[in-house]
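Tokens as discussed.
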């Protein structure tokens, strides 16, 4: 047990472990990515259509500060007027609101995706434990957050100092300009500073996204014993076992049907059974059973044989005998040699038959009593199917 506790976590987290982490509300998110991208997008929007936005806001302010005598005297209309002005203000900044909404959704998808966790939303008494709080404050995650914030502060400070220093003479000259040119130049300078700061923060956030992903997967790594225990737990569930067996049957059935294309003949009982035989004298002097089935599987075998051009021969007693006595990829029993040889000779005669000549009759299977079965697998001699 001590060895298991000291075992290193070298295995990548399984899909089940990742799913459990999402249920707990744990996602590889960068705390600065969404906000930085949103601010950068708004800066770009203002750069391109900022004039129209400013004009819309200015018009809304002019109308809001202008009242007619009738509006002042009619107090009942003030609520409707206030609502109208609020709507006009929102409409003036509609592109900013829409851009922020779209960019925030896209940023959330890139930054770990959407996730609602009832476990994360539920109250936890452990959060009130001061020891756990100290661990969060002085833990590795807290130190990494502190370093990230220091780096972000340093970059923002460097950008601000650089821009203000290079524009110091321009800023001093603004004081001697008229009011409108001063406001226009000051707004342009503020927008440029805001954009550069947003670019710097977004660059830090873009670097932080893969780091958060790497750190998230590293925290969820598992020991070899944890992987083995999880596999045992998963495979031990009845529904999982049933699903595995179903998948195995589907794969086995698919491989079996693929072999039908290599068969020399498919012997069928038109009502239910189908068996596919291959005879290659160079490799094996005895015919081999490639596929067998009843019901839906028999229908699939016959359909596959038709597509591959494999002859279908109707011989119900022989089809049942092979189905109940022969396993896949095994030789047919010695007691069926004569009946199978007659069917193969009939098929080979058909393939060599000159067009226009009379087609020979299908040979009647003459089987020993112990190889006679009904559709339920019962034999008159009492031989088990």
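Sequence:
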């Amino acid at each position: 047990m001590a060895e298991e506790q000291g075992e290193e976590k070298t295995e990548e987290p399984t899909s089940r472990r990742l799913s459990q982490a999402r249920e707990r509300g744990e996602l590889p998110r960068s705390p600065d990515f969404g906000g930085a991208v949103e601010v950068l997008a708004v800066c770009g929007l203002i750069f391109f259509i900022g004039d129209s936005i400013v004009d819309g806001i200015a018009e809304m302010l002019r109308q809001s500060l202008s009242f007619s005598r009738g509006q002042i005297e009619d107090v009942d209309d003030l609520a409707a007027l206030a609502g109208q002005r609020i709507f006009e203000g929102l409409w003036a900044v509609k592109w900013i609101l829409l851009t922020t909404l779209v960019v925030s959704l896209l940023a959330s998808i890139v930054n770990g995706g959407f996730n609602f966790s009832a476990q994360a939303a539920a109250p936890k008494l452990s959060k009130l434990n001061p020891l756990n709080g100290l661990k969060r404050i002085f833990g590795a995650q807290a130190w990494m957050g502190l370093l990230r914030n220091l780096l972000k502060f340093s970059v923002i400070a460097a950008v601000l100092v650089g821009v203000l220093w290079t524009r110091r003479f321009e800023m001093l000259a603004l004081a001697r300009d008229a009011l409108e040119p001063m406001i226009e130049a000051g707004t342009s300078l503020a927008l440029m500073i805001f954009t550069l700061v947003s670019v710097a923060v977004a660059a830090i956030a873009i670097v932080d996204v893969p780091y958060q992903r790497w750190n998230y997967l590293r925290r969820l790594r598992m020991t070899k014993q944890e992987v083995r225990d999880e596999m045992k737990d998963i495979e031990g569930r009845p529904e999982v076992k049933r699903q595995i067996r179903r998948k195995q049957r589907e794969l086995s059935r698919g491989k079996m049907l693929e072999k039908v294309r290599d068969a020399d003949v498919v012997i069928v009982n038109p009502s239910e059974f189908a068996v596919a035989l291959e005879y290659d004298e160079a490799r094996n002097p005895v015919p081999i059973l490639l596929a067998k089935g009843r019901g839906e599987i028999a229908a699939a075998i016959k359909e596959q044989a038709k597509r591959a051009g494999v002859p279908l021969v109707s011989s119900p007693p022989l089809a049942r005998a092979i189905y109940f006595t022969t396993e896949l990829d095994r030789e047919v029993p010695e007691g069926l040699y004569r009946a199978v040889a007659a069917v193969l000779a009939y098929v080979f005669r058909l393939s060599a038959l000159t067009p226009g000549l009379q087609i020979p009759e299908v040979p009647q299977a003459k089987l020993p009593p112990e190889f006679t079965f009904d559709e339920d697998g019962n034999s008159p001699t009492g031989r088990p199917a």
